[in-house]
Amino acid sequence: MERRVALKSMAMAVGAMAGLPAWASGWSKSTLEKGTLLSADQSKILTGMVETIIPKTDTPGAGELGVGGFVQKMVTDCYDSKAQASLKSGISNLDEQSIQRFGKSFADAGKDQRMQLLQDIDKSSDASQKAFLGMVKNLTIQGYMSSEYVMTNLTHYEMIPARYHGCVPVTKG
Amino acid sequence: MANFNIDSKKARTYDAIVIGSGISGGWSAKELTEKGLKTLVLERGRDVQHIKDYPTTNMMPWEFEHRERLPKEITDANPIASRCYNFKESSAHFFAKDNEHPYIQEKPFDWIRGYQVGGKSLLWARQTQRWSKYDFEGPSRDKFAVEWPIGYDDIAPWYSHVEKFAGITGNKDGLDTLPDGEFLTPHELNCVEKYFKESVSKQYKDRHIIIGRAAHITDPQQIHLDQGRAKCQHRTMCERGCPFGGYFSSNSSTIPWAMKTGNMTLRPHSVVHSIIYDDKKQKASGVRVIDSNTKEMMEFYADIIFLNAAAINSNLVLLNSTSSRFPNGLGNDSGVLGKYIAFHNYRATVSAEYEGFLDSTEEGRRPNGGYIPRFRNVYKQETDFLRGYAAGFGSDRETYNDRSGLGESLKAGLLKTQYGNWSVGSHMMGETIPKESNYVALDKTQKDPFGMPMLKINVDYDDNDEKMIKDYIEQVSEMFTKAGFKNIRANDNHRNPGNDIHEMGGVRMGKDPKTSMLNKFNQLHACKNVFVTDGACMTSTSTQNPSLTYMALTARAADHAVKEMKAKNL
Ligand SMILES: Cc1cc2nc3c(=O)[nH]c(=O)nc-3n(C[C@H](O)[C@H](O)[C@H](O)COP(=O)(O)OP(=O)(O)OC[C@H]3O[C@@H](n4cnc5c(N)ncnc54)[C@H](O)[C@@H]3O)c2cc1C
Ligand code: SF4
C-alpha cells in the first residue's frame, strides 16, 4: 500500500520533470551562454590528458566518458581567473614539452609518451605546472567517479536506498 | 492608490489573512481553514506546488553539470546565501538571492531566507525537539529576559497536536530536559553512537546521547496517507523537495490540506507592506500588499491577521505598519519592537576518530543524526555563563580510495574502497541571550526593490557566547576522551550570527505590555486581532531547533483566535 503511494508520487514527479520552469533553469542560463575557455585543439589535449590520468582498461577511460568536458566546464564556471589562466597555460606548456621531446603535439603522442610527460610534471620542481596537473587530476577523479557509467556500473549508486542500518559487517574490501 | 468600489472591497475581504506560507504560516492556514474561516494566504514569493515544482528532485548526481557546486557568478552574487551549507546546485532555487533582496548589515549577519510558497520548510534540516519546562522557566529564574507568559504544560497538548499531523520520528527517552512526544518509529543509532551513549551514561549521570527527533514519516499513519504522503525512502535529498512527502514541509502537508477545505485563497507574488490599523474600530482591518510583478499596491481586509513572515520579516512588517495611534510600529507602545533579537550559536565543532568496531560499517542512508540534550545550568547555575547548549552528535565509518599515481594504478586504486577508522563529530547549538542592543530597525531613507524601507540588522555575539563556546569544547572533548576517541580536534569556525537560521525575537511574548509585545496567546497586547506566531514571538531561544515550537504556538493561537472571534471579542 505504502509502496503504491510512493510509486504513484514518483511517476507524477517524473512527469513533472518534462519542462523546467524558468525560475529553476535561470540559475544556469547565463553560464550556459558563456563561451568555452579552451580552443578546439586545447580541448583535445585536455581530453588526452584525462584519458592518460584514468585510461581505458576493460572499462572505459575518463576521455571516453567525457570527463575532459567536465573539467573544462568546472574551471570555466566555478573557478577564478587565476585557475582558468593556469589551465590554459598548463595545456600549452604540456603541448610544447611534447613537441620538444617527441616532435609531435600531445594530442598525437602515444600512450606511453603522454604518460611520461605527465609523470615528469609530477616529479618536476616547476610549481605552476605541478599545480596545473594537480587541479586537472582532482577534477578528473571527481568527473570520473561521478560519471553515469561509473556510478551505475562500477560503484552501484543507489538513488533510493529506503533503509538505514547502523551496524553491518564489513564485507567488501 | 486606486479608488475601489464597494463590491471590489467585498471581494477583497476575508475572515482571516495569513502573511507568509512557510512553516508557521502553513500551520495558520491549516488551522484557520479547518475551523471554517475563509482565509487569504499572502506570500511574497512564487508558488511552489508539491512535486510539480521540485525541478531537481529526481536528478541523478551526474545530471548536475557542476556536481552540486555552484558557478562562481552565482556564489559571487550571493555571498550570504553561499555561506549556508545547503546552498548548492540542487537546492539554490529555494533560497532568496542576496542581490535581489538587500538589507543593511550594521554588523555582519547572514540572513538566510526562502521566499516562495513553503518558505524555508523546503530547506530545513527537520530536527524537531520539544522544549522542556526548564527552557520556559529559564528567563524568570536567571533574569536574562522577561518571563514567558506560558509554561510547558500550556503548550504540551499543542506539541502533540502538531507532531501527530506532521509526523515526527523519535525515541521515547524519558528525559525531563527534553520531553518525549508523539513519535513514529525512531531511526537507529549506529554502533559507535550507541557505544558513546553507553560510555557517557556510565561516566555522567545527567548527560545523554539520543537519536534526533525529526520530521520524517518512518511509519505512515492514516493521517499522513490522507495528506498524500508516504514513507520516507532515505534518499537524504530533502532540500530538493521530496516526491514522497517523506518529510514535513508546508508544501507537502499543511498548504494542500488547507487548500482541500475550500476555504483558502493563496496569493503568491504578494509582498505585504504593512498592516492597516483602523482608528475608529481600534483594531487592524487589513493589510497593504505590493504585487511583486506589477509593483501595484492593493489592500485586503479581514477580521483577524496572522503574521508569519519569519522572525525578521515579521518585525519589518510591524515596524512599517505606522498610524497615528502607533507612530513607532503596530502595537509598539512599549518601544521593544525590533529589540531583543536572539539566535542560536553554532560556531564550535569537535571531531575525532574511533579505532573500535573496525569490522562494522553502516548501510543505507539516514536523514537524521544523534543529539545531546542540554546538560549545563539546567537545575542550577553551575558555570560563569548563563544558559547552555545542546549538541548534534554523529559517527560515520570512514572510507577512502587510493588517489596516488596516474594511469591504470590510479584507476585501480579509485575503484577499490577501503575502510578507515570511524569518524565522530559534534556541533554545538548554543542559546544566546536576548539583549536590547541586538535589534533590527528601518532605514529612514533607503528603500528595497519592493518599495519597503530597507531593514538594518544589528546583532552580535557577546562574552556569554564566547564562554559557552569554550565550555562546549572542553566538555565534549572530555566526553570524547573518556570514550577513548583519538585525534580530538576542536574548531571555532567564527561564522556570522544568522548562519544557524534560527533567528528569533523582536516581537516577544510576555505578561507585561510595558516590556513585551504579545500576550500568552500571541496577540498584540495593543491590537488584539493581530497574532504573531513565528520566531518573532520568542521571548528566549533555548537550545532546541525552534520550528516545532512555532508550529505548536501557531496551532494554539489559531484555536484561541477562532474561539475569541466566535465570542465576538475580536
Ligand atoms: C538549511 C536550513 C536548515 C534548517 N534546519 C532546521 C532544523 O533542523 N530544525 C528547525 O526547527 N528549523 C530549521 N531551520 C529553520 C526553519 O526553516 C525556520 O525556523 C522555519 O522555516 C521558520 O518558519 P517561519 O514560518 O517563521 O518562516 P519561513 O518558513 O521562512 O516562512 C516565511 C514565509 O513568509 C514569506 N514572507 C516574508 N516576508 C513577507 C512579506 N512581507 N509578505 C508576504 N510574505 C512574506 C516568505 O517568503 C516565506 O515564504 C532550518 C532552515 C534552513 C534554511
Ligand atoms: S530522506 Fe526521506 S524525506 Fe528526505 S528526500 Fe529522502 S525520502 Fe524524502
Notes on the structure:
Chain A: Residues 1-24 form the signal peptide. Chain A: Keywords: Signal. The complex is a heterodimer of chains A (173) and B (570). Chain A is elongated. Chain A is 66% helix and 3% strand. Chain A has helices at residues 2-16, 22-33, 40-53, 67-78, 81-102, 111-123, 127-145, 148-154, and one strand spanning 164-169. Chain A is mainly alpha-helical and 173 residues long. Helix content of chain B is 24%, strand content 23%. Chain B has helices at 6-11, 23-34, 72-77, 79-82, 133-142, 152-166, 191-203, 222-226, 250-260, 311-319, 408-414, 463-482, 547-566, and strands spanning 13-19, 39-42, 104-105, 168-169, 183-184, 210-211, 264-267, 270-278, 283-291, 297-307, 339-342, 344-345, 348-354, 360-364, 370-372, 389-400, 418-431, 439-447, 453-458, 486-492, 504-506, 523-524, 527-532. In chain B, the strands form 5 sheets. In chain B, strands 1, 2, 7, 8, 9, 10, 22 and 23 form an 8-stranded mixed β-sheet that branches. In chain B, helix 2 (23-34) runs parallel beside helix 13. Chain B is globular and about 80 Å long. The model of chain B has no long low-confidence stretch (mean pLDDT 97). Chains A and B meet through helix 1, helix 2, helix 4, helix 6 and helix 7 of A and helix 3, helix 7, strand 14 and helix 11 of B. Strand 1 of chain A pairs antiparallel with strand 14 (360-364) of chain B. The structure holds flavin-adenine dinucleotide and iron/sulfur cluster. Flavin-adenine dinucleotide is lined by residues 19-25, 42-45, 84, 86, 112, 114-116, 119-121, 123-127, 270-272, 308-310, 313, 317, 501-502, 534-535, 545-547, 550 of chain B.
